[in-house]
Design brief:
By secondary structure, the chain is mostly beta strands. Helix content is 4%, strand content 45%. The protein has a 7-stranded mixed β-sheet, covered by helices on one side. A 7-stranded antiparallel β-sheet has the order 2-21-18-23-15-14-13. It has a 4-stranded antiparallel β-sheet with strand order 5-10-7-8, with no helix packed on it. It comes from Chitinophaga pollutisoli.
Length: 280
């Protein structure tokens, strides 16, 4: 049982233009989030955003405070969002236990000292996807299910982007400092997400792709609107999206993804749109 953490540094658009495929993946792509009996974390210097995964199997997994945080405990100066993308499990927060089924979410506010992950069945372990950001105020811990979410349906079958957006840990549902998380489910036969493309220079994002069928993949597009690049994504992988970058994707099949955001404001609609015909 261990916690693995790595650091990713921020880059300017000018620097990113020079990257080849390997450099793009090294800077932005998160290949492994779930490892049996471990917690894996990636610390990004974009808004000090942490992306991670916890996969408890035989024994519960306590969330420690890795050395780079220089904190007595993980949530000393942070808030945490969790969405379970695996089997049923529990998250125990300072002695209070919350049951999380598949696609249930949990928000934990700043100041909670102990967070412990566990699976209900080791043969079908929970997969807790984690997003964490710096916090300045303590808000209550709260479980949020899809039934509690603010739901928006967008797109159309004709443009292959008919999708349902479940806003789970957002300020219209619960109070947070800066973290926002939600889940977008594509309708069967649809492959595109987040069109028209946009940036929001006041916030960064991380996309986590899951429910990608075996043998299929998602092509994630990033970069400035007139200087786009792509990264091929497999199931249960994530990608960091800088604030100056578009973030959109198209799969070889339908899939689901979780978006997590942090930055200057909590306005979900704060976007700088780019016409599809202006993309380069």
């Amino acid at each position: 049982m261990s916690t693995h953490i790595e650091t990713r540094y921020a880059a300017s658009p000018a620097e990113a233009k020079t990257w080849d495929t390997a450099q793009s993946r090294e800077a932005l792509h998160i290949a492994t989030l779930f490892e049996a009996g471990n917690i894996r974390l990636v610390y990004s210097h974009y808004d000090r955003f942490i992306t991670g995964g916890a996969m408890p199997v035989a024994a519960p997994l306590p969330l420690g405070s890795p050395d780079p945080l220089k904190a007595e405990y993980f949530l000393e100066r942070r808030e945490l969002g969790i969405i379970n993308v695996g089997g049923a499990g529990t998250v125990t927060v300072d002695g209070e236990t919350f049951e999380l089924g598949n696609k249930d979410a949990l928000y934990i506010g700043k100041g909670k000292r102990q967070v412990v992950f566990a699976s209900a069945d080791a043969a079908a372990p929970a997969l807790f996807y984690l997003n964490s950001t710096p916090a300045h105020v303590t808000y209550p811990t709260r479980r949020v299910t899809k039934a509690d979410a603010e739901v928006v349906t967008l797109g159309a079958q004709e443009t292959a982007n008919h999708r349902t957006i479940n806003k789970l840990l957002v300020n219209s549902v619960i109070p947070t400092c800066q973290l926002q998380m939600g889940m977008t489910e594509l309708k069967p036969g649809n492959t595109w997400n987040t069109m028209p493309a946009h940036t929001h220079d006041r916030r960064m994002e991380v996309y986590f792709y899951f429910e990608v069928p075996q043998g299929q993949a998602v092509c994630h597009f990033w970069g400035q609107p007139q200087e786009t690049r792509h990264i091929w994504m497999q199931n249960n992988q994530a990608v960091i999206s800088p604030p100056w970058s578009i973030h959109s994707g198209a799969g070889t099949s339908s899939y689901t993804f979780i978006w997590g955001m942090a930055g200057e404001n909590l306005d979900y609609g704060d976007m700088d749109h780019c016409a599809i015909t202006d993309l380069r």
